[in-house]
Write a sequence for this structure.
């Protein structure tokens, strides 16, 4: 019997998708984005490299034995793996869900390379159609903002109904601000963060144009009120950097 070969990690590339003039089109999580996604999100989302390890810490606190944990919109699995390392109970099931074939395929490689005994089930499907049950921890890490506004309340209600008492939802999002001055300040700081990470004005402008019709941010108060209405007992901000926030909703 030959020794089983180890999976090869997908090659990570520098994000140059918007570095040259291109025809305007809506942002898609296709194969081109999947190839550069780790670099793209680190250089685009302030605090991302803090949020991911803290997802492990939060999972450790709220996971319950014999329950399910969900990463909805798992992309390449960064938050999935953080959750995995926060689950000490071997009778739990961890499920990652994403509707992008390219993302799921590359996520499978990262999961296989991760040295942890807890199995991970990956589903390539729309999170609006995912069956949810017996959950104690669910993560929506910069995912809800891509869900149509009309579907967000129903999704959060289904998550809350599937969550056991004492369980939690980790919701990370980009924010919109009611006050125009606050909005302008936070947007400017975010763009300066991108420039500091090597993005040009052309890249910033073209990415913003491509994403503005598919990613719809909301105010912090909108998120809080919807979470409470969905059935969570408490919704608190545990992290914020500029116009990016992560909320802990507790059942």
């Amino acid at each position: 019997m030959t020794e089983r070969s180890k999976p090869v990690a997908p090659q990570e590339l520098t994000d140059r998708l918007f570095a040259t003039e291109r025809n305007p089109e809506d942002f898609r999580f296709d194969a081109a984005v999947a190839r550069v996604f780790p670099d793209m999100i680190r250089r685009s989302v302030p605090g991302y490299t803090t949020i991911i390890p803290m997802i492990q810490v939060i999972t450790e606190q709220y996971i319950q034995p014999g329950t399910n944990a969900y990463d909805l919109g798992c992309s390449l699995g960064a938050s999935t793996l953080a959750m995995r390392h926060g689950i000490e109970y071997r009778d739990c099931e961890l499920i990652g869900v994403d509707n992008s074939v390219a993302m799921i395929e590359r996520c499978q490689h990262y999961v296989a390379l991760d040295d942890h005994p807890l199995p991970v089930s990956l589903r390539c499907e729309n999170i609006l159609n995912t069956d949810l049950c017996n959950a104690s921890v669910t993560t929506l890490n910069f995912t809800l903002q891509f869900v149509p506004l009309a579907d967000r309340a129903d999704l959060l209600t289904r998550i809350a109904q599937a969550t056991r008492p004492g369980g939690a939802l980790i919701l990370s999002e980009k924010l919109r601000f009611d006050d125009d001055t606050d909005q302008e300040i936070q947007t400017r700081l975010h763009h300066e963060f991108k420039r500091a990470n090597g993005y040009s004005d052309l890249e910033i402008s073209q990415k913003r144009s491509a994403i503005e019709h598919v990613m719809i941010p909301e105010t912090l108060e909108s998120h809080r009120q919807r979470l409470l209405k969905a059935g969570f007992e408490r919704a608190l901000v545990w992290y914020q950097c500029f116009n990016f926030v992560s909320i802990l909703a507790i059942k």
Remarks:
- The first strand starts at residue 68 and ends at 72.
